[in-house]
Design brief:
Growth Hormone, Chain: A, 20 helices, about 500 residues, about 0% strand, mainly alpha, 3 domains
Length: about 500
């Protein structure tokens, strides 16, 4: 039966479903853990800033390691990296559930982040490798739907598990599903062929120097951006961290340009589809991610909806991404990506401009939900076509590291977006004589908080305008049939 599946014309969907289970599990895990944090806080008698390191440590591990793991998959084979990543994910989930104290729980989640980085870096690369170039957008769009579905299901599943059992069940639930994923991955997924050196060349070596320098630069960047508002952007600690981050980043670029087998070939950025696409992607998430953090504050602490009601109200915006992801991907396969990316960012920017103009301390919740739906619609129209255009400009042997790069762009922009928006909001609150902290948000200070939100939405709309410009200037890219010919030539030259 397995042989028949591998020989089937529908094998690409079998491969997609196999990887989709792992992707869905990873996204659900993140959402369910967020729901479990208050219970974990009470169980260990800790405080929220400490408990949040369960999530922060996990996210940092993924962000620091996803690029090296993507390149490792390109060199030794993506199936191996993916399966071993799932093994680490499952073992770490069991260790987290059995943790006797908070420190071991945080350590287990950091360890799990290593596995997640391996899964995320290799998963998307295997998906797009299973589909022809004419269907790359469809594959990426459908994958986006899996991510969106997991984002919706995660909090609901986490709430059910914590209510019916206890917080440990959130982690233990990953074990049987993860084992099933490992088994079918070993059976279904093909062992992709690593880079084959040409005559007279040696097999590429893993770039340990690049991995270390990129890790230091990313870790410094995320810690500086994530803590700047709390510690103070002009504090010695933040300035020192920023300097160290810049030095590490510069050293990384210097090293990559000189190492014979770079982890990330910096020359790829000479291609407009890559450089402009990556930049547009970063500004897209920079101008949108903060809303997912800020709007629950507004809906709970200003409009005074319960957490359960807010969760239900945020389902329709998430569904926009689930439903429109595959559609935008298919459209990009047929008509190209530039028009869709410009349209998507324009819709998102328009939503934020309307939000900045109309938002008050008593805005109709229906209007808020509709604008959030419009913003997510814009993101769905932009994301898959943009990533598809980036990948159309690189060789198949670079799929792993470039796929990882697109996810790293998202992660780093998410952190930066929240940090910048928070700074704008609390600074506005402080200028109006209110305690400059999100913890102080309540109906009594709603006017100051809303004023800060309006400035944040103007800022995010402006950032999306930059993304629109970059998307318009990057060019149309190759037509689908040209992409297929390029892939065929690359595959042929690799096997010569």
């Amino acid at each position: 039966m397995i042989s028949a599946i591998k020989a089937s014309s529908n094998f690409k969907w079998w491969a997609f479903a196999t990887i989709g289970i792992g992707t869905f599990l990873s996204v659900v895990d993140h959402g369910s853990v967020l729901i479990a944090l208050p219970s974990i806080e009470r169980h260990f008698g800790s405080d929220l800033p400490t408990v949040q390191w369960i999530v922060v440590g996990y996210a940092l591990a993924i962000s620091v390691l996803i690029l090296p793991m993507g390149r490792l998959g390109d060199i030794i084979g993506r199936k191996q990296v993916y399966v071993w990543g799932m093994v680490i994910f499952v073992i770490a989930a069991g260790l987290a559930g059995a943790s006797p104290n908070l420190g071991s729980l945080i350590a287990a989640k950091v360890f799990q982040g290593v596995g997640s980085a391996m899964v995320q870096a290799s998963g998307i690369a295997m998906v797009i490798s299973a589909f022809p170039g004419t269907e790359r957008g469809k594959a990426l769009g459908t994958h986006l739907s899996v991510v969106g579905a997991g984002a919706i299901a995660g909090p609901a599943i986490g709430g059910l598990l914590v209510s019916a059992f206890e917080w440990r069940s959130v982690f233990f639930a990953n074990v049987p599903v993860g084992i099933f994923t490992i088994i079918i991955s070993m059976l279904i997924l093909l062992s992709d062929t690593p880079e084959i050196p040409k005559d007279g060349e040696v097999r590429p070596r893993f770039d340990w120097g690049g991995a270390m320098l990129s890790g230091l630069a990313l870790l410094g960047f995320l810690l500086v951006v994530g803590n700047g508002d709390r510690v103070g952007w002009t504090s010695g600690l933040i300035i020192s961290g920023a300097v160290a981050t810049v030095i590490s980043g510069a050293a990384f670029i210097w090293w990559e340009l000189r190492f014979p087998y770079p982890m990330l070939d910096m020359r790829l950025f000479k291609r407009k589809l890559v450089s402009f696409g990556v930049a547009a992607g970063w500004f897209s998430f920079l101008g949108s991610s903060a809303s997912r953090f800020m709007m629950p504050f507004y809906m709970q602490r200003v409009l005074e909806y319960s957490p359960r009601e807010v969760g239900l109200l945020l389902i329709p915006p998430a569904l926009c991404m689930v439903l429109l992801g595959p559609i935008s991907g298919r459209l990009s396969d047929r008509f190209g990506s530039r028009g869709l990316t410009v349209l998507g960012l324009s819709v998102s920017a328009s939503a934020w401009v309307i939000m900045a103009i109309t938002l008050t301390e008593s805005s109709p919740v229906l209007l808020i939900v509709l604008l959030l739906m419009a913003q997510n619609t814009g993101t769905a129209l932009f994301n898959s076509p943009n990533n598809s255009s980036i990948l159309s400009a690189v060789e198949r042997s670079q799929y792993g590291v470039v796929s990882a790069l697109t996810q790293l762009v998202r992660n780093s922009a998410n952190v930066t977006s929240i940090a910048i928006a928070t700074t704008v909001v609390v600074a506005t609150m402080g200028s109006k004589g209110v305690e400059p902290s999100l913890d102080a948000v309540s109906p009594a200070v709603a006017d100051a908080f809303v004023a800060g939100l309006k400035w944040a939405f103007w800022m995010m709309g402006g950032l999306l305008m930059v993304g629109i410009t970059l998307s318009a200037l990057r060019g149309r890219g190759p037509k689908p049939e040209q992409a297929v010919r390029t892939e065929s030539i690359s595959a042929g030259s690799a096997s010569d």
